[in-house]
Structures are given as C-alpha cells and as structure tokens.
Amino acid sequence: MDDKTHGVDEVTGHRRMRRNRKTDWVRRLTLENRVTVDDLIWPIFIVPGENIVEPIAAMPGVNRMSIDKAVEAAREAADLGVPALATFPNIEMALRDETGSEILNANNLINRATAAIKKAIPNIGVITDVALDPFTSHGHDGILREGEIVNDETVDQIVRAAIAQADSGADIIAPSDMMDGRIGVIRRGLDAAGHQSVGIMAYATKFSSCFYGPYREAISTGGLLKGDKKTYYVDPANGTEALRDAALDVEEGADSLMVKPGLPYLDICWRLKEAFSLPVFAYQVSGEYSQIKAAAAQGLLDEERAMMETLLCFKRAGCDGILTYFAPQVARLLAK
Question: Pathway involvement (predicted)?
Fold first, then answer.
C-alpha cells in the first residue's frame, strides 16, 4: 500500500484540527458555547403616561414605554422565553432634585412599573436599579454635596429605595451606583424588612466608560451631568482594582456579579468567573448596541451575525447571562 503520509502529517504529529470542522454535524457536536434564550436579560425604559412607545434616536429599535406598554413588552418577552427584564425610568424633570428624593417615593414610576409587570406576568423576573442618576437634577448616581458625591448618605438612601423596590415586587436589586459598602448595607436592609428571598446583582465592576452615551439620552441625564463619574466608577485601565471591588461585593453578600460595559471588558468577565463561585453577567451597554446598529445601517457588517457573535463572546468569557437590548430580536431568531 502506498504511504500517503504528507509533510503536514509529520509536522503536526498527525493531529489535524480541521477534522472537527469538516461538516455541519461534527461542528455542532463539538461546539463549546451556545447562546440560548435563557442567557438573556432585556433592559427596558419606562416613561410616565399611557399608550406611549417613544423611539430613542440614539438607539435604533429601542423605545421608551409607558407602563401599560411595558407590560405588553414583558408579556411578549415571557412568551419568547426571556427570563427577566431590567427596568430603568425616565421621570419628569420636575421630580428630579439634588438628592434624587423621588426614588424614595413608594409609588414612583419604577415601582409602579414593577408592580404592574409582576401582577400581569408573575413568572418573569424583574431586576431594578437603585442608583440615583435617573432621579437627580445633576445626573450623578449619588447625592452631590459641595461638589462631592457623598458615599454614606447615598448608601443610606439607596437602602431605603431598595426596600421600596422589593416591596413593589422586584426579584433582584441591582445597585449600579458604585458606592463603597452598599451591597452589605442593602443586604442587611432587605433582610431586616423581610426580603430575604430578594437577590442582589452587584454592578461589581462598572467602568468609567465612553460607551454609556446613548443610555444617558434614553433616561435624559446626558445634558444634566455636572463633571464626570471618575470618583466612583472604575478606571478602564485598572483590572486588579476591579477584582478587588468585586471581592468586596462577594464578601458583603452579592448573589451575582455584573461587568459593565461588556465587550471591552471580556478579560474582567473571565477573571471574575475564575475568581469567584458566583454567576457572572455582562451588560452589553447602549454604546455597544448602537455601534452595531450604526455599522449595519451603513452596510459595513451583518447585524444579525455581529449581534450573535458578540453574545457568544460573552459566553466564551464565562458569563452566565447577558443584559442586552438585542434580547427580543435574539429570542425571535432563536425561536426559528
């Protein structure tokens, strides 16, 4: 028999990587990561009023919705199998002040939305944020005193807000403010109020990023912001500091950890997953979403493929789930 060994066989030691790529069925059998509908959390924006579906110019395909329309969206998401929503309010400017006091109103916009969604679709998860930026007149995530975001007073306020959100039916509190100590104090506050079953998803590593711009338009804070958020968000250069931040959240009782933004920080997703025995989530933020939409609109890339590839990258980096504005689009695609 003629020896058909090739030089390639000799240099590779007869190990050819393409054997597991040659057909569709073998590629499917050896696939390491998959995106499923169970990986999706859908962030939505709530506005006052009724029968409102208001497109956000900076985020094509994303709308601000009144509570009644948000309930309809939640029902659609549940029907598609999306496990949970993350809700963000755009409240009236007249209700915003220096301390974000409207967040303490038990009947505020975000709490009414939670109650309405949980009443209509009790089997869908609702994740709420207790940062003050949608409620402040200066656009910061905390209380501003003489040019400084004060840590401890802010924490006292967000604990009270977290309890009110849990009272309204929130399943998970996700504090994005990045104040020191807030996870532990929120946990104690929830437990004291009888909300031991309400989880905390810590924005464990929220970076001072340029990718939040479209979101700030969505909640009408962009033009309000005085200064920047560098005194409380993590510097994009600092990976070890981000892990120290996450470690404190773990010690204080976080049930899961979030990395925000997502794609520019895949290394942080992986490091958190390797370091801690907790679920890790990534937030594919507004800037990430909008750049894919903008490039696709220019014909520079395939939107559907880019959408799915980026979500798959999160899974490969160890994420258990992704907060993404693409969620309903992805769910519909997977349903096919």
Answer: Porphyrin-containing compound metabolism; protoporphyrin-IX biosynthesis; coproporphyrinogen-III from 5-aminolevulinate: step 1/4
